[in-house]
């Protein structure tokens, strides 16, 4: 946490916050020039009450927010829920619990948890020994003293949050989920009321996320404040707003993944694409085939059990996020697949760790599943069953299909056209997905784009394509014209691992340069492609991708944030940008700066977007 800026105060001048030196009465400097009149106004209090709305992503339909504030305490915050079904109500209570816990963590981070009044009631008595009657010392063995709560510090005695979800009984995200919401906040007498109306749990969860951005900690008055007059109507532009994390090239703990989900939730990203395995390692411990992890994990501690996956899925769901697990196949499948002959299952994968690697795969180590071994498909079927049970129900499932190397297969098979092997494999994998999902495949099975996706064997009605190539590559137009639904992940805008140099040699990496948050934000591919309104129906949304050759837990947050949040606003709001401008509007810079600090307050190590001076002096640097 940044320390309080006790030497500065801020004034709202022409809808922007202006920094001024602050000298407190009694300060040694006050004898020379006198003290600064009035109370110190922290930057966050100024920027929340001065100028444009500080919500990220920006609401799409309507947003009217006043500048008056109310001071409240968590002890007075209560929720009332009307829901279409009991599971929705239960999930909403869990989501509200997360909302309240994160506010409690904000107080704790500022050392103000005991001042809020939740720990001890306003009228509770403290004995001379420091112990409340009937109370024992806390778990740390120390006696904690709390000052009685000063009622004059707060503007309300009651803060009610009333949530109404009367349409959808679903607690699982689908391609048709209505994520819209209406949020209003009013303050009457000493009562604060926030009303949420949504058609689904997911819309109501987004409303809570927006409301949390109307709340902040004032480090001068040392209280939580909220903008007490608001009316917001909001609906996302795209249903699929994703983030992909590769956990094979480096292992990431469940806690690190959870931290990523927190950032996603507050950015309103709704699909976590978990690229759980690759040719480097196989960290998932299958209950049917534990040999995959036994032979493929980096160590016995760098694994994901079924309990781990279930924990991540539930943690994501209460935050409005769907987990989409991916076992990449047939390529990118090496280490972990080499035990077949020892168990009389034959060669499950070919070209494993084969050299020279550049002949047989895109990067070392190599490995590509055997398309003519029925045991390979049986294992995939069992893996699909497990993942659908853990993460499902899913109407979108990722089969992989990336970067198949035909030279690898050509060493072993004599087909006249090796592309038919890829088609056969993908159709067989799709059939096994159907069987795994009790005879009915998810509505869409996704594959990565490649030179093979344009080969006429995949049905546009059952397959979606995740387009990862360059935004100007011809495949974009070919796939649209072929009628496929697309998830866009263009390497020249939304690949977050690019720009850190080659890890195999000196010089630039394969996808340099680095894409800063403005590049991520300004990429509007549907506009560049000049798609018609009919073609726009084929764009499901987009996804930022983080491949982890050069990323581990020590750098995860800074690679993802706040750039993933820039993608989030592109996919939620899709603001129209000046085509020839190289930068984003000043107002967007200011909102991003505030949101980046919000992520830091939530415990994410998001990278800064400019010098702190620029954050303190709005509009002077951009």
TrEMBL record:
Domain (Beta-hexosaminidase eukaryotic type N-terminal): residue spans on this chain: 55-214
Superkingdom in the source lineage: Eukaryota
Native organism: Culex quinquefasciatus (Southern house mosquito)
Lineage, opening ranks: Eukaryota, Metazoa, Ecdysozoa, Arthropoda, Hexapoda
EC id: 3.2.1.52
Name of encoding gene: 6041118
Molecular-function annotations in GO: beta-N-acetylglucosaminidase activity
One cellular component term from this protein's GO annotations in UniProt: plasma membrane
Root EC class: hydrolase
Protein name per its UniProtKB record: beta-N-acetylhexosaminidase
Record has Cytoplasm as a keyword: no
Gene Ontology BP, a term: carbohydrate metabolic process
